[in-house]
Amino acid sequence: MTTVLLALLFTLVAVAGTVVVWADKPGRQAVVLSVFGLALTVLFVVLQAPDVALSQLAVGTAVVPLMVLLTTRKVRRLRGERR
Amino acid sequence: MTVYAYVVAGYLLLIGCYGVARSRNLVHTAVCVSIAQSGTYVLLLAVGYQAGGTAPVFGSNTPVDAAVVDPVVQAMTLTDIVVSGTVTALLLALAAQIAKRHGTVDPDELHALRG
Amino acid sequence: MSRTARMIVFGVGAAGVGVSLLLAFLRLPAFGATVHPYRDLSVPAAIQHSTANVISSINFDQRALDTLGEEIILMGSVLGAATLLRTARGESETAPPDEGRVLPATRLLGYLLLPVTLLIGFDVVLHGHLTPGGGFQGGVVLATGLHLAYLTGRYQVLRRLRPLSWYTYGEALGAGAFAVLGVVGLVASSAFLANFLPFGRFEQPLSAGAVPLLNFAVGCEVASGVVVLLAAFLKQALVVEGGSR
After folding, report:
1. How many CB atoms lie within 10 A of CB C34?
2. Residue C67 to residue B79, Cβ atoms within 8 A
3. Which C-chain residues 18-47 have CB contacts (< 8 A) with chain B?
4. pLDDT tens-digit series, residues B11-35
5. Where would I find the beta strands (DSSP E) of C91-197?
6. Which of C84, C236, C241 to mutate to test the interface with A (most CBs of A within 10 A)?
7. In chain B, which residues have their Cβ closer than 8 Å to the Cβ of A72?
8. CB < 8 Å to C55, chain B
9. How far is CA C48 from CA A8, B86, C148, in A?
10. Which CA distances in Å does C81 have to A34, B84, B88, B89, C174?
């Protein structure tokens, strides 16, 4: 049972990682990155690593995607000013 | 399943590097670096996993003699994640700075500018 | 280098790395196997120092020196990012765009969750030696919780909640406290960052020697560091105008 769940979660993480790399628009990428972080969090919980899952939840699904969004916004604003 | 977990870790590393090579936007590049780094989390935790083992936190549900998974790799992954977050922040700040200086975050255009 | 050439170089390199990784993976112990020599050494050591959360024991007791190194990486990254993102010459700060379209329900949720998240963050830091958690995780939860104020749509509220200079001091204090605790370990006990407090009883709030103190120092540093980082990003994205040549 756990083995099947783990196999599914590993596959989910691999697929989510691929989607993040293929997402070309950084704004959309931030959202997919957050989903990828969530998939990793669930995987870590099933791998019996609650400490790591907590860390990944806070950093990978909240802080880093937020910083990506803010940087994207800044870059877009700078481009707007130049035009 | 015996090597599948490790293969997923290696795959994440390679797909992240592929994203870096293909990237047309430095913000996208920084995100791809963090994907490549998440391969290390998966590898470390997969190495430390034991089927049927519980989390290495002792308490009322986990007696001291219970079979636990390897805590050493978990401690490494934990700090890895936090450090990766701040390093990604540094890379994103660099991307923002480049956008300010050159008005573009496309690595190819940056090369053309330097000419 | 042209794009095609770059992708060919990448393809050759990736194939090489992929094959060597695969060869290495085939010789690793199988996934889920029972052989874990590091665990067999670290778990008894943690129990001997009456630390219920073995991961905290490893991070703050058994290999605390590595954690100090990681703290310094963290501090360096925050410092670098904050320096790169500061308001430069030629840039001006405009009035922040206040009161975007925020649903009343979202705003209410932001106000309600703010204290709850801060409480959880403190709990995670303070009980890091007993339950899953610790300074690293709790610190990030605290910093993220504070930014729920931004969800309410008011950048000004966030700014008032966040006298930024305090957090720069907080970060320095946290990192400094970790190093000072290390020196105390050197003087009072055997080595730098050695545990110097009585270990107490297993699974009691006051146990694990200096681990809760180090946890608190790290929590202070991580929370302040992430607040400083997010503040710098928010300011650049929302307030700072101009600067592009």
Report:
1. 12
2. yes
3. 18, 21-22, 25-26, 28-34, 36, 38-39, 42-43, 46-47
4. 999 999 999 988 888 888 999 999 9
5. 91-93
6. C236
7. 27
8. 56-57, 71, 74-75, 78
9. 38, 34, 41
10. 21, 13, 10, 7, 19
The packing angle between helices B71-102 and B107-114, to 10°, is 50
Tell me how close the Cα of B48 comes to any Cα of chain C, in angstroms.
7
Give C238→chain A minimum CA distance, Å: 8
> Can you say whether the dihedral through the CA atoms of A59, A65, A69, A74 is positive or negative?
positive
Rounded average pLDDT over C8-30: 90
Query: What ipTM score was computed for the predicted complex, to two decimals?
Result: 0.87
Q: Report, as an integer, the average pLDDT of C211-240.
A: 83
Mean pLDDT, chain A, integer: 86
Helix (H), strand (E) at residue C242: strand C240-242
State the DSSP string of A15-57: HHHHHHHH--SHHHHHHHHHHHHHHHHHHHHHTT-HHHHHHHH
B26-35 in b/e form (b: 16+ CB < 10 A) is bbbbbbbbbb
Contacts of C209 (CB under 8 A, 6+ apart): C49, C50, C51, C61, C195, C196, C197, C198, C199, C200
- Name residue C92's beta-bridge partners: C241
Which of A13, A26, A67 has the CB atom closest to B25's CB atom? A26
Q: What is the pLDDT of residues C37-63, one digit of tens each?
A: 888 888 887 777 777 788 888 888 778
Chain-chain contact of B27 with A68 (C-beta, under 8 angstroms): yes
Contact call for residues B33 and B20 (beta carbons, < 8 A): yes
Q: Is the pLDDT of residue B102 over 90?
A: no
For residues A1-23, give the mean pLDDT: 89
Element (H, E) at B45: helix B26-48
CA atoms within 13 A on the CB side of C171: 24
Lowest mean pLDDT among B72-86, C29-43, C63-77, C204-218: C204-218
Q: Does B112 touch chain C (CB under 8 A)?
A: no
Q: From CA A8, how far away is CA B12, in angstroms rounded?
A: 16
Q: List the structure tokens of B23.
A: 């990237």
Beta bridge partners of B54: B68
CB C10, CB B17: distance < 8 Å: yes
